[in-house]
Design brief:
alpha+beta; 10 helices; 3-stranded antiparallel beta sheet; binds flavin-adenine dinucleotide; 257 residues; globular; 3-stranded parallel beta sheet; FAD/NAD(P)-binding domain; 13 strands
């Protein structure tokens, strides 16, 4: 049963605009609407039409290791020379990318990695409970699978400074992991390439069966509790006498997905 607020109570509710109905905007909008705000979302592509549409759908509750780690600075020249390395910078962008690269290296200092890892742990470990709360049990079970995730590698045992730090952090944070040999992995996935020699399974991690259905379900929830999603492109946010307002709000010329 939905209880409509009185006209007076509704008038007291603050108006809130959320720009962008991706996974972040939708989750924020539902929480704001539940907290008693009148929330309107503005979205150019349709709910979940941006990065939240085409991602891998992993819900990594037990991943708390940032990408930049100690010692990576020494690997950059080699990476830039290889075609299949994890880092590629298009030549004309090298100078432009420099400040970002410096910040990335700074983030890889031991104390920064520890702080980032603790923050990631606090954020990620709640993800499944958070989705269940937002979606309700039935929808949650239909869009999220808790089958774990497997990370595989083809190089020898890892013993670098960074590997030791990662292992220490996971241990300190009680992250559930199952180290696996190449043989054990192949027993699970017989067609896996022969060069895979080991891996680690995160049994508590999950995935969504369809990222678009996840955001679509959140959009439905949001509308069901009185939220609105308008197909508009916000071009500017500017202060006014009431707080903030938008500059010209463009109508969408291409139909939302
Ligand atoms: C290839 C790939 C794989 C990934 N895999 C994973 C994964 O497995 N697990 C994971 O957790 N993350 C993954 N990610 C990251 C994840 O997709 C993003 O972090 C997440 O979708 C970001 O959500 P968002 O709501 O911030 O952005 P978006 O989903 O991009 O939402 C922003 C929305 O704002 C709208 N918008 C922007 N500007 C305006 C404007 N001016 N007016 C109106 N609307 C506007 C856009 O249309 C868009 O819909 C992956 C990303 C990529 C690219």
């Amino acid at each position: 049963m939905t209880i409509e607020p009185s006209a007076e109570a509704a008038a007291r509710r603050p108006d809130v605009a959320v720009v962008g109905a991706g996974i972040v905007g939708l989750c924020s909008a539902i929480h704001l609407q539940r907290a008693g705000c009148n929330v309107t979302m503005y979205e150019t592509l349709g709910p979940g039409g941006g990065a939240s549409f085409g991602n891998a759908g992993l819900v990594s509750v037990d991943n708390s290791i940032p990408f930049s780690l100690p010692g990576m600075a020494w690997q950059i020249p080699g990476w830039l020379a290889q075609r299949d390395s994890p880092l590629a910078i298009h030549a004309p962008h090298v100078l432009k990318a420099w400040p970002w690269l410096l910040a990335w290296l700074q983030a890889g200092r031991r104390q920064n990695v520890i702080a980032a890892s603790q923050a990631l742990r606090a954020l990620h470990s709640y993800a499944l409970k958070g989705y269940r709360d937002l979606l309700g049990d039935e929808v949650f079970e239909s869009v999220i699978r808790r089958n774990g995730q497997l990370y595989i590698w083809s190089s020898a045992v890892m013993t670098s400074r960074a590997d030791r730090l990662v292992a220490d952090l996971r241990r300190a944070q009680n992250v559930a992991i199952e180290p696996m040999t190449g043989q054990a992995i192949r027993a699970m996935i017989p067609d896996l390439a022969r060069h895979v020699i080991g891996g680690v399974r995160f049994p508590s991690n999950a995935n969504t069966v369809n990222p678009s259905r996840l955001t679509g379900s959140l959009a439905e929830r949001f509308r069901a509790i009185g939220g609105h999603i308008l197909p508009r492109c916000v071009s500017r946010i500017q202060p006014n006498e009431k707080g903030f307002g938008f500059g010209p709000i463009g109508a969408i010329t291409t139909p939302p997905r």
